[in-house]
Every structure is written in structure tokens, then in C-alpha cells.
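Hi R.,

Here's the input for the pyridoxal-5'-phosphate complex you asked about:
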Amino acid sequence: MGNSTYTHRILDTANMLKDNNLYPFFRAIEASDGTTITHDGIDMVMIGSNNYLGLTHHPYVQEAAIKAIEKFGTGCTGSRFLNGNLTIHEELEEKLARYLGHEDAIVFSTGMQTNLGALAALCGPKDCMLFDSENHASMIDASRLALGPTFKWKHNDMESLEEVLASNINRFNRVTIVADGVFSMTGDVLRLPEVVALAEKYGAHIYLDDAHGIGVMGDRGRGTMNHFGVTDKINYNMGTFSKSFASIGGVISGSSEAMDYVRHTARSFMFSASMAPASVATVSACIDLCEKDNSIHEALWGNVDFIQKGFKELGFYTYNSETPIVPVFIGDDLKAMQVTQFLKENGVFATPVISPAVPKGEALIRTSYMASHKREHLEKVLDVFEKAKKALDIPTGHRLH
Ligand SMILES: Cc1ncc(COP(=O)(O)O)c(C=O)c1O
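And here is the predicted structure with pyridoxal-5'-phosphate in place:
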């Protein structure tokens, strides 16, 4: 295949990994009950998903999804703008606005589409966006669609944010600070109260991507802005349903005026089919369960506490994670693949994060936990990681290569 037009450095790496039985991507899952899965005939504890509340298999949620299919069918076959607007879409938007504490909310068909459509709509040719350097790929792609420029500030660094604010605030109409509430790879939390103070000082807007915070952080999962008590200071709060809310879809919330603007200008909203009925009903049922009582969140944070302490006692470096995302530092890319394979062979499904997703020498295993994990699942995870540490000489602490 010497003269193939489909050549890429990443493909060479993928082929090398496949040849060495270390390729950890596109693993087909044969069966799942949420916390455990079967892959390659091996039963494994799942610690590689974003199912933080463990609701994908909850009977109340599944029943709501089935009833929605029975009433509305399997798909909407059109955009909200035209023929794809169901009463349950509007009811979900009202419920989300109330739950999150904003005036209005709009649901999109995915979180990626929410960022692409909303950010591009909110950053016109005379506007600009200020990005945390570790913002998710969907925001980076949105910056490519936006007509105004994007400037970066150093990850969670308020001095750096102030520098970019001071040098751009007078050059543009609308300046929007854009960042994750909970960072997806390292599980650290945005210093949001300080971001709010800077936004007020300079007159900037804030767009929070709370994909990993919604459902998890704050009172009954109302998100990172609720956790810090700054809901009324956040102009645009974005979330996805592909994690805590056990489905697929996305949301943006804010003032009625801002949402009406997004509703009529976000192209990924207007020119794409609406969320399927089963997904709408799933999200609605997940919010009901969150609001009903605190037991899901108590179970989640109990598990987070147990596993964080367990990894630390074993001497692993888990960054500054304060959330259900617990990254385990490995360092070398190839070693991260070997660890992933070792985990698999010993019944644990976790995913490696290697360069270019993280800087070279900073490879990690991203692990994440659910409210529905049982203690024996977590004990097994710690036991297998301890064995992996001995077998593969995983570094203690944060040793840069
Ligand atoms: C921070 C962040 N934003 C946006 C998205 C996109 O969400 P979705 O999976 O709903 O497209 C993700 C999902 O990976 C994410 O982690």
C-alpha cells in the first residue's frame, strides 16, 4: 500500500499497536448492565464510561424511554424548526431551565452540536472568545466555525485569563470566556468564582461547558455553577446528556433573550434533526430521579471518596481530581497501552489517554466511577491496579519523561 492516499502518522501507530495486540480503541462491547460489561468474552468492571449516575439501566428510566417510543415512534425525522418539534421537547426544556436555575433552555441532538451551534452563533465577526487551553475538542471545532477570533489562556490560570481579557476587552463587541466546568481528562474543576470576578471586572460573558459537571456537581447535580453558587452570573451553561443523563443530546441554558437568539441562529440546531423521543424521555426521567432524593448523589460521592483514597494509598498520582473522573498518571504512551491491556486481561475496562490528547510523557489511564458501582467492583479495580503497578513498573508520583 506504498502509494495509498490514506496515510497518516496516527494510522501507522494504530497498525503498530494492532500488530502487538495492544490496540485499545473501538472495543466492541457484547453485553452491559452499566457497571459491568463483556468484551472479547471477558467479564469486566466498567471504569471507562461517563455514566456517572449509573442510570442507563435504571428501570424507571428505561420504562420512560419505552413509553416515549410507543407514543411518538423512534425518530422525529426533521428539525425542531420545522416538523421535528414534540411537546416533550418543550416540556424537557422547561424542566431543564427550572432544574438548572436559568430562565430558558434549548436541547440539541448532541453536546458536540450544542457547542458548534451555540458558540458559532454567539461569536460573530466583531466578537471574540477566550478559551482555557484544555477546552474540549467540540469547542475547538466551534472556534473554527465562529466568525470572530479565539484567544487562549493557560489552563485554570487566572493571571493568564486576566492578561487576555485586558488585551482584548476594548477591541471587540462581545467577549466570551469559554471553559469546561469539570475538565474531561483530569477531573479538575474550573476556578469559577475567580472567573466570575474577572468577567464582572472586565464586562465579559461566561460560557460554561459543564458536560462532566451536569448531573454530578452541586445540589442534586445542578452543575458546577450551582456548586459555587454563581448560577445567575453564568450567561450560557452548556451540558450533555451523553454522560450523567444516560442518553444522547445536549442543552444550553441562559436568559430568555439569549436563548431566543441561539434558537434562531445556531445552524446545528436549525439544520439537524431533533432529539429522538426515547432520548428526551430518558433525560426527563433522570432529572426526576435526581430531584426525588439525594441517594444517587450520596452513593456517587461515597464511591469517589473510596477510590480516590485507595489510589493514593497505593501510591498512584491522580492529578488534582475532585470528581468521579480519576486519571492515573502513567507517563509513557506505550506503557499506557500495556497497562490498558493488563487491566483488560484482569477484568477491568479503562481507557488510555496518550499524545496528542495530552502532552508527550503525560499519558494516563482515565478512570471514572458511577453511583451504581458496588464496593466489590471498586476493590477489584484497586487490586488489579496494584498488580499492574508491580508487573509494569508504573511510576509513583508525577514523574515527567
Ligand atoms: C467537555 C465536553 N464537551 C462536549 C462534549 C460533547 O458531548 P456529546 O457526547 O454529547 O456530543 C463532550 C463529550 O465528549 C465533552 O467531554
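One thing worth noting: The chain has a mean pLDDT of 96.

Cheers,
M.
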